[in-house]
Amino acid sequence: MSDPHVIIGIYRKGGSMNTIDELINEIYEDNYSHLEFEENMGGEDCDCHIHISLNTIAKYAGIEVG
């Protein structure tokens, strides 16, 4: 499995990110209200693009989601 701390060089508006952790944190921060609402409502079945993207990134980074 790949190391989730590996430097990946993702381009984004305003600069670049260096790690998978930074990408996940940026997505989480940009979508905090939705993610917190779903978590508080027990919504593990949400199939929105935000959840699908975060789960896919975590899967390929070897991060346990749960």
What's the short version?
This protein has 66 residues and is mainly alpha-helical. It has three helices and two strands, in the order E-E-H-H-H.
- How do the SSEs run, as a string of H and E? EEHHH
The CA-CA distance between the termini, in Å, is: 19 Å
Q: Helix count, per DSSP?
A: 3
Total individual domains = 1
User: Quick one: biggest sheet?
Assistant: 2 strands, antiparallel
Q: What general outline do the C-alpha atoms trace?
A: globular
Average of the residue pLDDT scores: 75
Query: How many extended strands?
Result: 2
SSE-based structural type = mainly alpha
User: Largest sheet, order of strands side by side?
Assistant: 1-2
Oligomer: single chain
CA-atom Rg in angstroms: 13 Å
Low-confidence stretches: none
Give a description of the structure.
- The chain is mainly alpha-helical and 66 residues long.
- It has one domain (10-61).
- The protein contains three helices and two strands.
- It has a two-stranded antiparallel sheet with strand order 1-2.
- Helix 1 (20-30) runs antiparallel to helix 3.
- It starts with 9 loop residues before the first strand and ends in a 5-residue tail after the last helix.
